[in-house]
Amino acid sequence: MVNVYAPNVRQDRELFYGMLQTWPWQVREVILAGDFNYVIMPDISSVLDRLGGKRNARSESAALCDLQQQLKVEDACILAGHTEEFWEQMEPTEFFTYWGPEAASRLDRFYVPQKWTAEVKWVAVEKPQVPSDHQCVRLHLRSDTLPTPSQKRTRAAVYPIKAAQPERVQEELLKEMIEAGVGREVSTQTWD
To answer: Where is each Endonuclease/exonuclease/phosphatase domain found (predicted)?
Structure first.
């Protein structure tokens, strides 16, 4: 699972998603989750992603669309069978994750492997447990499709990393991030 917190500014966001495309992704399946800071379908006919605000007929992030194709992931709401007819029966508070002064949007979401249609049960939007300007999004998977003890998967590193020398680990991570250029083109003003 990769947690995403994308920049607000479109140009910075496109660079961010472009950098994600260059990551050495494993051959295994991936879940992307978090604050993507854009809506998928901003056109006027879509009730799924935005209420009020600016609308146009194209996706707000071509780079994220490319990343979705590269990783073969799909919006979990779509895999859960949440069609526009389904959304029209719900109150907006049940699926918008961000409420601003002029618009409400579904900025926070899960992307899961396209072949997980049977595994995605539903996606719930809930009030956060701590003060936040975004709602909490929870992905519910079918328990009968989760691995049994005999099917346990090997685990990668568990985060946060617990190390005997946390300062050294922190220095190494910072060095690696600086070498990769993380934050070079982005200022604190571009992040939420």
So the answer is: 28-134
Question: Is there a cis peptide before residue 131, judged by omega within 30 degrees of 0?
Answer: no
Token pair, residue 125, equals 């939007």
The C-alpha angle 49, 52, 58, rounded to 5 degrees, equals 50
For residues 120 and 76, is the Cβ–Cβ distance under 8 A?
Answer: yes
Grouped pLDDT means (10 residues each) for the chain, 192 residues: 91 93 86 88 51 55 91 83 52 71 82 87 84 88 61 46 63 77 61 50
Q: Where are the domains of the chain?
A: 2-144
Query: According to the CATH classification, is domain 2-144 in 3.60.10.10?
Result: yes
